[in-house]
Every structure is written in structure tokens, then in C-alpha cells.
Amino acid sequence: KTIKKFNKEKCLIKWPNDILSVNKKISGILVENSLSLNQVNYSIIGVGINVNQVLFKKSPNATSLKKISNSNIAIQEVLNELINNYKFFFSKISELKYINEEYNKNIFGKDGCRFIFNGKRQYGKIISVSNSGIVKLNLDTKGIQEYDARNVKILYN
């Protein structure tokens, strides 16, 4: 939602933790959980948003709000929007069905994309992502199956 506020292009979530715009990475999210006895003690969430960067020497599949809009974006405005969105979604944290529906309606690959599975490139479609982060794919060679992030990688284009 934060990226969409400053970007008129379509934005999608590339499972499990990237945000794409014009099929390029514009943002990434990392989460580290502290667990004990199957319970989350706390989580540390890191978000990176490419705001005014224009050169991506080591990341050819990256973009920024500035590259897409052709104008500088006020970083404080992006931060304020991000904080407001955090507040909203944290207020919904116990509504797993709502969170999962929002995630799934914004997922990259529902219309088809390429994957790397067992070291080989394959084509397929994402059907859905579960509350626990498991992705259900329909791969041309395997049919419909569920995978976690260690077993399959989604390619940008």
C-alpha cells in the first residue's frame, strides 16, 4: 500500500518477500522471528524501499519510485505512509483471513511466471499462499503442489 501511494504502476508481491513494480524489485521485506515452544516471542521486521535511487549496478531487476515517476519523492512522506500502513495492518494482525486475502489478491504470478525448481526453469501459476507462507503452485511439469521458499524460486520475468 505504501508503494502504491507514490506509484501509479501496478505493484505486486513476489512471494515470499519482494514488492515488484513494472516487473522490477522496488522493495523488500525481511522478518526474523524469535520462537520458543511453537510460539512467536517477537519479530523484527525490516523494510527497504527504493525511493530516489536511480543506478542499480548489481541489481538489473531493480527500480525505484523516482525512476517510475521521473521525479524526486520526499523520503519523510514515504516514511509517514509506511508508518500509517504499519499501524493499520498491525491493528488487523489477529484477522488472518483478511491479511491472507489482501496478500493473495496482490501476489505476482497468478497469471503465470517462471520458477526454478530442482535447479530447472519451469513455467506455472501461483494459486495461493497460505497463512504459514506455503505457496500452492500449478507447475506445468508437476501439477498442483505446495512448496516452501527453500524448494522453489520465482523469477521476475
What does the secondary structure layout of this molecule look like, with pairings?
Layout: H1 2-5, E1 11-14, E2 18-21, E3 24-36, E4 39-49, H2 65-69, H3 75-91, H4 96-105, E5 113-117, E6 120-129, E7 135-139, E8 143-147, E9 152-154
Antiparallel strand pairs: 1-2, 2-3, 3-4, 5-6, 5-9, 6-7, 7-8
Describe the structure.
The protein has 157 residues and is an alpha+beta fold. The protein is 23% helix and 38% strand. Strands 8-7-6-5-9 form a 5-stranded antiparallel sheet. A 4-stranded antiparallel sheet has the order 1-2-3-4, with no helix packed on it. A hairpin with a 3-residue loop joins strand 1 and strand 2. The longest helix has 17 residues. The relative contact order is 0.15.
